[in-house]
Amino acid sequence: MIKFYYLSGSPFAWRVWLALEHKAIPYQKIDLSFSDGDLSAPEYLSISPRGKVPAIVHENECFVESSVILEYLDEKFTESKNVLFPSRTLARARVRQLINEVDLYLDLVSRKLMNAVFFTRQENWDPLRIIEASNRVSEELATINRRCDLFFGEQLTAADFTIFPIVKLIERLGKLAETVGGEVILGDRIEKRVSELENLPIFQKTWPPHWIEK
Ligand SMILES: N[C@@H](CCC(=O)N[C@@H](CS)C(=O)NCC(=O)O)C(=O)O
Predict the structure, then answer these.
(1) Which domains are delineated in the chain?
(2) Hey, which of 22, 73, 182, 187 would disulfide with 177, CB 3.0 to 4.6 Å?
(3) Buried (b) or exposed (e) across 132-146, using 16+ Cβ within 10 A?
């Protein structure tokens, strides 16, 4: 059975959890704690050399990088009727494009906002830094929002499992940013897609346990 190394609140780990559930792949979820030092424990570093989540172990092989894990799961577990990557070349390229938009651009700016509000003590918050980071996040979201029709269709794909977790995290960051005048704009199409996904059972089931409200 797949061992799935998970950290609550990580959008990348959430992506893999959604994929496992969507494809109904049996797995054992191992909850790691950042504050307990689980990610830097030698045992975990032998699985995930950079001490990052998610990671999976399957058939004695270790896999890291959430987008690679999704591709692996899709290619390995072909008996599931639910695919993560469409078989048509064009549709598959567009799913990969969305993943790259998130991993190479949106993630970068959302980390700036996360550092400014989550990882800075509130008494040291710099409103200008927070507003600037909020604007950068909004700009990146706008480039995705404009092309939503290319990325999302009738079927759930890896594109949905990629956008949903990071948008949910950004919403939380945005609420904090608002308190000092920052504003994160998700975009109408992203907002619509995310709200449609939110009520589906797998999204509810995989909600980060430490996020109290749903
Ligand atoms: N590109 C990686 C990103 C993984 C990542 O940055 N994970 C964060 C949690 S969201 C992490 O493990 N951070 C701990 C650390 O860097 O020490 C992926 O897609 O899996």
Answers:
(1) 2-76 (3.40.30.10), 89-205 (1.20.1050.10)
(2) 182
(3) bbbbbbbebbeebbe
